[in-house]
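Final report, closing paragraph on structural work. Over the funding period we assembled a curated collection of sequence-structure pairs, and we close with a single example.
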Amino acid sequence: MFERFARETREAVRRAAEIAEGEHASVVQAEHLLTAIVDPAREPVGQSLVDAGITSEAIRSARDREFQSALSAVGVDTHRPLPSPTSRLRRGRTTRFAPSAKLALERTLGLASAEGARRISNRHLLTAIVSADTGRTPQLLEELGTTADEVLARAGFTSSA
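Its predicted structure, as stored:
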């Protein structure tokens, strides 16, 4: 499957793993894939999102607010500083893809196949990420003050998921 990815899409997937590792996350989540599309925004899909205010910082802030809200909902005091994540000793790349990221990548392939595309682009990846109806992505989009349809429209296309 990875060989069908366009260069910028392969770079986005690799960058998502780097972002997750930089955050000391144990797995790559769908929101890491979304962040990788806009950070850095080297191609039209990512740039259109940045132009609409969906930047890596906005995504991280929305994710943090959503996380704080979830903690508060179950009675965890969020006014106390949370301990910083500990760095892990690694031998090579060991970051795994979480179910949300795996599902996004599977849907990416499905979208490209359904339209007969030879190459899998960031357009397919973005559509697969934001079209998820479960997991953290819908809450993240809500925290960003947008919807999947609005994100796709800002990027210049509509949902086909």
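The chain has one domain: 2-78+94-154. The longest helix spans residues 56-73. We thank the funder for supporting this effort.
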